[in-house]
Amino acid sequence: MRICVYPGSFDPITCGHMDIIERIVDMFDRVVIGVLQNREKQPLFSLDERLGYIRRCTPGYENVEVEAFDGLLVDFARAKNALYIVRGLRAVSDFEFEFQMASMNKKLYPEAETVFLMTNTKYSFLSSSMVREVGRWGGCLRGLVPGEILPDLMKRLKNSL
Ligand code: PNS
User: Fold this and answer.
1) Is 7 in the pocket of ligand 1 (CB under 6 A)?
2) How far is it, in rounded angstroms, from Cα 41 to Cα 128?
């Protein structure tokens, strides 16, 4: 059974994340979306909000589970029996951090492979921080975040001022 972990902050989930999820559900038998609790970098959305938004966007996928994790990603991946860690790459600027992280994760969990997927180029400019910024000032997030959560997210972000 091919199990992968797709980890991230998902603060909040975007269409770029969804693009990756839609592709990996066909590549792996089980996809565990791991949401980092993130104690150092204070997220805008609470853990429950972030988990809830992802679950609302992925109800049709039988092989997807959405779970929080804390501590090292490799420990979470091991606990899930996952031999694959999926990360999306948008641009060359992502590479340096991703290369460091994949190398460290390889050292800590040699059996596991990091698998990079290129994000669809139409989302190469998109990030959760951009979504937060645009949404906070009332900008339209259509096409940037999944339709299932668009109205709630826009309302919530406007109230985060
Ligand atoms: O969506 P993000 O913020 O780019 O995701 C980063 C994430 C959650 C994948 C990364 O910060 C992570 O794995 N954190 C857990 C701690 C860890 O294992 N770090 C990697 C060892 S260098």
Assistant:
1) yes
2) 14
